[in-house]
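User: I've been going back and forth on whether these two constructs are worth ordering. Before I decide, could you fold them both?

Assistant: Sure. I'll take them in the order you sent them. The first construct and its structure tokens:
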Amino acid sequence: MLCATPAQSVTVDLVARLLPTDGAEAIIGFDTDIDGTTAIIAGDSEGALLVDLSGLVSVTTTITPPPSPPDGAFGAAVAIDGRRALVSSVNPPGGTGSVTVFDLSGSTPTAVGTLVASDGEANDQFGRSLALDGDIAIVGADGAGAADGGAAYVFDLSGPTPTEIAILDPGPGASGSDFGIDVALDDQLAIVGADVIQAPAGDSQAAIFDLSTTPPTKLPRFGPELPTTNTPVAIDNGVAVIGFLNQPGGGIAVIDTALDPSDPNFDRRLTPETPIAGEFFGTSVAISDGLILVGANDFTGGPGAAYIFDALTGDELGRIDAPNGATEDSFGYQVSLSGNLALISALGRNTPAGTGPGAVYVYDLSPLTTPVPLPASAILLIAATGSMIFLRRPKAA
């Protein structure tokens, strides 16, 4: 159910509820991704689910580990773009982690390559997060690097063998920052989220990199530096969405017209129409074709929710409540968006009768008027005390 703003009377449809294929053996929904009408869902340590949503009728295929199983929990994180998918195996104690590349062109997914870190060490958490765009993949390893500050690895998948082409790091002073806890990629722009970052003045919790240069160029900080415990990231058409999970609250939105770290003034501030106490607005974020989806997983025991925004105006288009509305559903833990199709995971929900190994809900957002896509020059930041900050990157001289 969508709770729309007072000015609107719309309803978005819940078209599918996806469950583990083997009952309680796996917890699904720790990570999700969608491209067009094909979704991929992480199954914790039990592989991943590939879901065909064409015609809004789900057909599910289980992606299992390759014949030579990688170390770690296969199915920790997932990514999909076109007919290629990534599934990670985050390392067990003493392991390094890896990512398996799958070709989806055939009747069943086929493992065609493996991604590993060139400088991998034990407990790097390589594969904690994944992003895929065309022939470029990014793998987050939030325990890698100096003083476990974290890193993100960039791979070129165009050749017969995947090639590591860059390592992105948070810079000095980032000890224990969990840099790489989330990653996002669109064209030549990559964003890497962090957890608690001990950064020098002028830096920020998340970093954006231009991959068109060699080595990649870390762009100037965007947005204010806020205390945070998690920074989920998303990007589409050059528009970045960053979540700052630092305290309960419905959140505010701030719109700026210039990317100027020295200017604390913003054009407009927005708040959710009906903020709910205890929600962690910004637990997860997604953006596609001018729509923004923000998860508000309720860690205090509430059911959770997800909010939809117009990326051009910042207007809230509505709130999607947990279908069952039960406590500890963790609805909104993970969100993904492609066109009008949205995925929202609920780690604590399986059946209407009680909690279980999680579920992923699929919504058709087509009843909403699709906003005009943002120009590629815009940069958007969601800070989830949660704050939403719209920032525009200066045009090149």
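The second construct, handled the same way:
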Amino acid sequence: AHMVERTAQEVLRHGSNVLVLGEVPEFRQAPGRCVARSEYFGGDAGACMEQPRDAALSVVGPANSVLEETMAGRPGRFVYLLSDIFCRDGTCRAGENGTFYYGDSNHLSATGASHIRHDASLRAAVAAALHGTQAPPTASVSLDE
């Protein structure tokens, strides 16, 4: 928390707002590898592509909480949790419609990076940080929208 605070103060000192992005959810195993193993050896490939939000955030949740606590309620500071893009209705998804968002268990693929780039709520958070206004509530969209 100290280094995040120190970095935010330095950026603010130069006249810019700060937007910190939280971690993406982690999966127990690489979704692509899990799907391949399931298809080769038999199993539920669909289970490889999603997991309960609590499980996915068990590793990154504490770091995300530190970011929120460090940045919350302070002028010029904004935080956006990338988990809000991948987790809906209590479930985190590693991809949709045959598309993988992850290259391994906790790093986005190029497709995953493109997915967050198209997310309306992240775009709103970036615009809010640029303009120094409060971002609207999170509402992510899928690539199909």
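Notes on the second construct follow. The two ends are 36 Å apart (CA to CA). The longest helix spans residues 2-13.
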